Amino acid sequence: MDSYSSLLKNNEINQRDIPEIVSRAKKGDKNSKEKLFGYIYPKLYRFIYYRTNNKAEAQDLTGDVILKIAKALPRQRGNFNSWIYSVARNTVIDFYRKESVRKSKISIEDMPGELKDGSKDFTETILNEEALKKAMEFLSERQKEVIILKFREGYKNREVAEIIGTSEGAVKLLQFRALKKMREYFEEVRYEKKD
């Protein structure tokens, strides 16, 4: 495994503790910063990975986002989750503006380091992840963000709306349209397999 795999481990922190950890990290407490960045790295990595479909790019961009967050943390105001995802979203947008990057094919080696090799459902999980990523290629960037934040990261509609800067109704509409497109994709794939 590469040097990023340890950062992808599930560094869960109780949600009630986040404001206190953020407050102490803003004041320069090294232990709090370590906990905070250990907690947000896998979330940001997954968010960026699903936008780039490339492990190396996601690692590099996540590192850039973490550095930006670390530099700006003492001045951060408002909702912390909204802020970190805004930084991540803007970093990805800047990356695509600067680079003319072709979408790369996803391989098993490019999968995030969160799947367990020993699980009996490993092959099925990989196939499901591959199918999901393929279906997401047909979504708009906003739809991808909603799907990732809602279903991958587990945020509520209200939180997703705050993170992406839109209304809760718009989030519901984006989710509805995204799921409809994905359902159509899976139905088409299933139909093609029968032939």
**Could you tell me the strand content as a percent range?**
under 5%
Q: Give the overall shape.
A: globular
CATH class of the largest domain: Mainly Alpha
Mean pLDDT: 79
Q: Structural class of the helix and strand makeup?
A: mainly alpha
List the secondary-structure elements in sequence, H or E: HHHHHHHH
Fraction of helical residues: 55-70%
End-to-end Cα distance: 40 Å
User: What gyration radius follows from the Cα positions, in whole Å?
Assistant: 18 Å
Oligomer: single chain
Number of helices: 8
List low-pLDDT spans: 1-10, 100-120
CATH superfamily of the largest domain: RNA polymerase sigma factor, region 2, helix turn helix motif
Number of β-strand runs? 0
> What's the architecture of the largest domain, going by CATH?
Orthogonal Bundle
How many structurally independent domains? Answer: 2
| CATH-defined topology of the largest domain | Rna Polymerase Sigma Factor, Chain: A
Sheet having the most strands = none
Task: Quickly list its features.
globular, 2 domains, 67% helix, Rna Polymerase Sigma Factor, Chain: A, 195 residues, 8 helices, Arc Repressor Mutant, subunit A, disordered N terminus, mainly alpha
Structure summarized in a few sentences:
This protein is mainly alpha-helical. The chain has helices spanning about 20-25, 30-50, 55-70, 80-100, 120-135, 140-150, 155-165, 170-195.
